[in-house]
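Tokens for chain A. Residues wanted.
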């Protein structure tokens, strides 16, 4: 069965972006480019994200691929107003838990959860996330867009690895069986 994996970065105080969706604080972190992003992304062929993450990524990339390390990656954008996509991108308002349950049962590589709480939290609540790769930048933003929100039940993960890439710390957690 395919794994569902969150892979992303936050500030020390738990924000994944500023209120205006900026990530310059992350790109200014010494060593962030040494993280094994390419290795991770070669193992995924599906990326699921919210509309804001998709729009920001498209503004910032020149190749217009969410995953340049695996160009066949299918991007699925969660939006309240789905519209026609293209060969690489599908826009949907299907409940994310239903979508991920269907994707996990299909053949393919791992599924990358991109972006914030709107996508991640329903999956955590439904116990559908296998791995969390969280990179922590040494900055306190004080405000912004949080990665985690309240959840109705406690969920425990196991710490699998910790790594340092320059000033970036990465923790890898796996869901306990």
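Reply:
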């Amino acid at each position: 069965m395919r794994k569902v994996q969150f892979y992303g970065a936050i500030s020390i105080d738990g924000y994944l972006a500023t209120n205006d969706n900026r990530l310059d604080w992350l790109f200014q972190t010494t060593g962030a480019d040494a993280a094994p992003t390419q290795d991770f992304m070669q193992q995924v062929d599906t990326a699921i994200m919210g509309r804001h993450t998709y729009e920001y990524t498209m503004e910032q990339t020149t190749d217009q691929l969410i995953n340049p390390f695996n160009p066949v990656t299918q991007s699925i954008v969660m939006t309240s107003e789905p519209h026609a996509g293209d060969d690489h991108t599908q826009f949907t308002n299907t409940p994310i838990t239903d979508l991920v349950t269907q994707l996990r049962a299909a053949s393919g590589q791992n599924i990358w959860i991109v972006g914030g709480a709107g996508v991640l939290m329903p999956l955590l609540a439904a116990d559908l996330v296998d791995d969390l790769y969280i990179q922590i930048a040494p900055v306190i933003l004080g405000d912004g867009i949080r990665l985690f929100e309240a959840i109705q039940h406690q969920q425990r993960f196991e710490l699998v690895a910790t790594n340092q890439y320059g000033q970036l710390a990465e923790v890898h957690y796996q869901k306990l069986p």
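The CA atoms of residues 101 and 128 lie 8 Å apart. The first strand starts at residue 4 and ends at 11.
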